[in-house]
Amino acid sequence: MQDITYVLSKLLWLPARPGTAALLLAILGLALMWRGRRWGRWPLLAGLGFYVALLALPLHQWVQLPLEERFPRPATEPAHIDGIVVLGGAVEQNLTEARGLPALNGAAERMTEPVALLRRHPEAKLLFTGGQGSLLHGGMTEADVARELWLSLGVPADRIILETAARNTHENAVLSLALAAPKPGETWLLVTSASHMPRSMGVFRHAGWQITPWPVNYRTGHTVAVWYDASFPVRLGEFEWGLKEWIGLLAYRLMGRTGAVFPAP
User: How far is 119 from 114, CA to CA, in rounded Å?
Assistant: First the structure.
């Protein structure tokens, strides 16, 4: 059942993502008008209107801002950290396999922040959770890339724990909990993108792990400069990412993978 859910989530998102859906609407409207159907102007206007709104308004900021501010970092860093859990999603395993060098994407802070934490906390372990997150993939897992990257940055091999099978956030939580087996009273940090933290915390709590959020990779701010600095393709990508998180929150609640639609601190 989980395999079917995983495949469907990937396939349904391809036509449903806003950029694609708006383009398909515009093409449909244009084809209808070409054939003399005047009502075709409505899907055409809807499709083009989305792109105009994204260009004129900071929709990419508004959709992510509530997500990123839901779980702030602790005011002070814990004095003792037993472990750090890093969620996959920041590495590009296909590019790494093709070029032979660890490749990162726009969420690279997920991979660099834990290294800084390890240097301040020699007692901590570093657990990366991530297998194959895409339908089309090669032989490398995200965990393979994480190991290569962290070893090249000087992280001792005996401090790295790799979970290699997870394909989504639910599996990240369940499989990493079984692997880490945290003891009562231990302090573990959860490192992932700030906009992904609400869903992640909800899933980890539901799995039985009271973990401490340590968000990174912030993409929003409260100034006009931040709102309008990004190029149009970046705005589109950020809007789609934020909307996907909101859909994911609702879907995970309906599937019983989290205890709340919008988990709170």
Answer: 9
Q: Is 94 helix (H, G, I), strand (E, B) or coil?
A: helix
Neighbours of 24 (CB within 10 A): 13
Half-sphere exposure of 3 (CA within 13 A, CB side): 1
Cα 221 to Cα 100: distance, rounded to the nearest angstrom:
36
Q: Which domains does the chain have, with CATH numbers?
A: 2-69+232-254 (no CATH), 83-216 (3.40.50.620)
Give dist(CA 161, CA 174) in Å, integer: 15
Min mean pLDDT across 25-39, 113-127, 148-162 is at 25-39
What pLDDT, in 10s, does the model give residues 179-235?
A: 999 999 999 999 999 999 999 999 999 999 999 999 999 999 999 999 999 999 999
d(CA 221, CA 184): 37
What does pTM read for this prediction?
0.91
Least confident of 44-58, 100-114, 136-150, 162-176: 136-150
User: 41-56 and 59-68 helices cross at what angle (nearest 10)?
Assistant: 60
Of 112, 80, 39, 71, residue with least CA distance to 214: 71
198 close to 249: Cβ distance less than 8 angstroms: yes
Backbone angles phi, psi at 127, to 5 degrees: -110, 120
Q: Which helix (H) or strand (E) holds 163?
A: strand 160-163
Please report, to the nearest 10 degrees, the dihedral formed by the alpha carbons of residues 74, 80, 82, 88 taken in order.
Answer: 30
